[in-house]
Amino acid sequence: MIAKLYSASLLGVDAFLVEVEVDVAKGLPSFNIVGLPDTAVQESRERVRAALKNAEFQFPIQRITVNLAPADVKKEGPVFDLPIAIGILIANEELPETCNDDNIIIGELSLNGRIRPVSGVLSIALLARAKGIANIILPQENAREAAIVEGINIYPASNLRQVVRFLNKEISIPSFYVNKEELMSNKDEYPVDFSDVKGQQQAKRALEVAAAGGHNALMIGPPGCGKTMLAKRIPTILPSLTLEESVEITRLYSISNLVDKKEPIMTSRPFRSPHHTISDIGLIGGGTVPKPGEISLAHHGVLFLDEFPEFGRSTLESLRQPLENGSVTISRALRSVNYLSNFMLVAAANPCPCGYYGDSEKQCTCTSYQIQRYRSKISGPLLDRIDIQIEVPRLNYKELIDRKNNGEISSDIRIRVEQARKIQMSRFRDRNIYNNAQMNRKDIQKHCQLSKEAWNLLTKAMERLKLSARAYDKILKLARTIADLELKEEIQTAHIAEAIQYRSLDREYLF
Amino acid sequence: MKSIGDSGEELARAYLFKKGYRILEQNYKVSFGEIDIIAEKSNCICFVEVKSRKSNKYGTPEEAITRYKQKKIVKVAQLYIKQKRIKDKYFRFDVIVVVFNNYLLKEIKHITNVFFE
Fold it and tell me: What domains sit in chain A, N to C, each tagged with a CATH number?
């Protein structure tokens, strides 16, 4: 007797359909799984046998062969435990053959027959919808994650017996449902707020501009001036996540097994802050079976690199391509996968190894050679991709103890940021970009109209500060964003002046 | 005097007979191994390994059946099936454990379906 049912496995961020065929025949008792299973799948034999026995089902003393098709793609993970167990029961005629026509079944089994949660469920749910499969039977804990996909029935189950009785139509399981409006409205609850940071009005403003135009930012300042604090609060002023963005992020987190058990859907923007000893692969993604790296986990959020020059040279350089493309393709001998990585890079650095170069109070003790070497770690092409470079000065004592003047709260800043983003969305409607930071030469010429006075100021600045052609483009982009924040069509003098401010490194004031 | 092993096997055969098994072979021997008892009941052929012990002092008898021994039994079973041209039957590997105490039977234990090919 042969049984056939559907399950799914993951290839990068995408799932693919796997046909699970189970044959039970007379012969010397044996249990084999074929179809390129990895170790976790091979071991599923022992789990299935124990689970069936402990759920008080007959485990056939016969020759059992399980085939996972397509046979040429490597299958990973324990998701096949449940379909194999169900397949054995069907082949053993304990379940009707017709019970699984339109189902995808996934789930790991524990030895006592309980169904344990698996990773990558959201991708599998999306696959089901794409392939027109109506139902998914999955572990209880994964139901919330899958239910965000509309148009399919989600049947959560907590143990093997329950699934069998459901397929036998002895019991009915209500299809799991999540209220998406409610889910997306209770987001934006961050434990931090911009008003927590004392003083640093200039830096806050710069980060507002960065958030509004999707610009990458580099903060330079002495230790303890609040760079890290500021960076942690950037997600609070970024526009709210849309459902599509939320799904994209959740998929990446789900395949990395990083979702929260209680609330698997990511409703707030990620903030990733890897330590500077991170490897290239840890940052970009990789491994024999390529996994997403930090840049992908920061998708639609903020990647904060504290102590920027301390990162390995090759690690930093590997950021260049993903920064440009918003996605990264990881190729290995076995497979090549593409992970989205559209993040906002925020870096923080000290001005020199001792940290006090240019400080108002403390003397720098570094030699000029040391400083030069420290700064040369950040290459030109990488700096080229960072539009905003600001100095974050030491906070003086008066500002620190001032209890009244805390500055704006995040939600107020966010309203302006969202407005500016809306303008950009309508501006780039028919282009394949979303924000000012992604503009190319042509776009800049088209969209950055300067008033006469503004033009004069820019020309003067170019001559006086000896700005490069590269800096010229960046200043125009930034001025565009600043004008958008003020809902102005034409770029004014003040906008250009502010934009020039944000090019510390071009002004050669510090670096 | 008979050895512990021989009397154990005898007891095991009596036990199976009482349980309604038909004994097909005893001490089925080929060049590379031996199966103690081959018995049949309701369309299922059982290959039985009998293990006897005077006491549990040196570990339980069932522990003495190693992976290597299992593999050997499976090989012999395959040969048996082929030689006798058996078709359309179920197969099973069993162990019968016989424990003596002072040359008196203390315990007889039948463990069914113990290992897989």
Answer: 2-178 (3.30.230.10), 194-431 (3.40.50.300), 439-511 (1.10.8.60)
